Amino acid sequence: MRKLSSRTEFVKPTFQTSVNLDGYINIGSGTPNFSPPESVIQAFKESIDRRQLSYTSWSGLNTLKEAISRKLLKENKFLADPSAEILVTSGAQPAIFSIFLSILDEEDEVIIPAPYYSTYEEIAKICGAKVIPIKTDTSSNFTFIFEDFEKALSDKTKLVVLVSPSNPTGTVLSKGLIDKVYDKLKMLDITLITDEIYEHYIYDDHQHYSLMSEHAEKENIISIYSLSKGYGLTGIRVGYIVSNKNTIATIAPFHHAMNICAPVNAQYASIEALNLNREWFEVEMKNVIAARQMWMECLDQLSLPYGIPQGAYYICFDISQCQKPAHQVSKDLRSDHQLIINSVDDKYLRGSFMQDLDVLKSGLNRFKSYLR
Residue 360: CB partners within 8 Å, gap ≥ 6? Predict the structure, then answer.
């Protein structure tokens, strides 16, 4: 066999938490444990019955982009031109990939608050770029300070990524901090990516802020959204990118090269999902909020430091008292307790609220048994 690409050295599969395995309890999954209303499923089926099986426009169905534009105006408080400022993608990960490929060159740097979702780093490395982390911990509830962000900047900085609400930490960044970062980057002509795919999961008195609501020109801003998390549609693979006209036109060919277009039947289901009111989701959130409380009570009982989840549906906690790296703790939990929960880095594990409460209770009991 010929020598493999050097990329295989740093892009390796990890244990998948997004599927359930027989005999295991999964309390780390990033997959919603609910389905959207039946009308969304029906829209998918009807598009198949109508034999709508061909490619759509590279940027997505016009009716879908119009539905996205209405959603952005209603929920995110900004206008986006459906004909030029929205690109429908095959989920959020191809969106990230397309953006990075269109902007990053060898030796460029990408600043991301850490802990962060590992795929960002993998894609940056594929592009020959380097991730510069802004380190945070439980003492600040995983919120970085502006001065640390400024220290991370260099003449090689090409992108900054802010994920809010955050996977894996559950942190919601304040409007003031996001604005301050953007003002600095705009002055330096550096692009800011806002990953907002967990926008519908907000707790207590926190608020989700979309930067474009105050910057209609969308200069130096690229925002990523998804139908996966807030609509229970992870498997149909639909996300979207919003930016100014020129940036969208630059990114679009890269997404085309990977996927041509998002799955057509999934796009029709997405139209229905976006056109529905969100009352059905409020019912699902009651289970998520109860699971959040169960996690915090468990970690309090075990005296494990954690960041209070302000958004998303994860809780990130410090496992260093086990005197083992987090990936080994995760492996022990799988092999000895049939419990699935992944590590974030050497110090942290990430728990999920996406599990039925009785199953979560059993999983947390197994976790307590491991520690005790």
Answer: 27, 291, 294, 295, 353
> Tokens representing 161?
């990524």
Cα–Cα distance, 44 to 267 (Å, whole number): 8
Tens of pLDDT, residues 31-41: 999 999 999 99
Q: Where are the domains of the chain?
A: 6-36+279-371, 54-275
In which region does residue 225 sit, left (phi positive, over 0), alpha (psi from -120 to 50) or beta (all else)? beta
Mean pLDDT of the chain, nearest integer: 95
| pLDDT < 70: residue spans in the chain | 1-2, 13-20
At residue 161, the 3 state secondary structure works out as: strand
Class of domain 6-36+279-371: alpha beta
CATH number given to 54-275:
3.40.640.10
Give the pair of three-digit tokens for residue 305: 């430091």
- Of 216, 183, 209, which Cα lies nearest the Cα of 194? 209
Residue type for position 267: Q
